[in-house]
Amino acid sequence: MELQHRRDSAAVSAATAECDEKNDKKKKRRSDSTTSASTSTSSSDCCSLRSACGPRPLEAAVAVAVVLAVWALLLVGINGHKRVSMKEKKVREVLE
């Protein structure tokens, strides 16, 4: 158990160091190519879409949109079926 904890801690430390290194490189590139006003926004890298949704936030957004579209279509279909079946029931009552 202790060995597993040490391995996990080492992996987290390595990943954190790699992420910090990448962020430092980004900040350096931004400071080299832009004004000092835009470098203040680079400090919010920890709260960016990339950190929230992974390396491809567009794919995550598309997946969410597809799931919501299917859900909405299902609700519309169920509601339409319910309405049609109610109308059908009324027509049968009138014809009898």
Write up this protein.
The chain is an all-alpha fold. The protein folds into two domains: 1-47; 54-96. The chain has four helices and no strands. It starts with a helix and ends with a helix. 0% of the residues are buried.
- What is the general shape? elongated
β-strand number: 0
Q: Poorly predicted ranges (pLDDT <50, ≥5 residues)?
A: 36-41
Q: What is the averaged pLDDT score?
A: 77
Distance between the termini: 75 Å
The Cα radius of gyration reads: 27 Å
Individual helix count: 4
Sheet-strand content, in percent, reads: under 5%
Q: How many independent structural domains? A: 2
H/E series, N to C? HHHH
Helix content: over 70%
List keywords for this structure.
mainly alpha, 83% helix, 4 helices, 96 residues
SSE inventory with pairings:
Layout: H1 2-33, H2 36-39, H3 49-53, H4 57-95
Short characterization:
This protein is an all-alpha fold. The protein contains four helices and no strands.
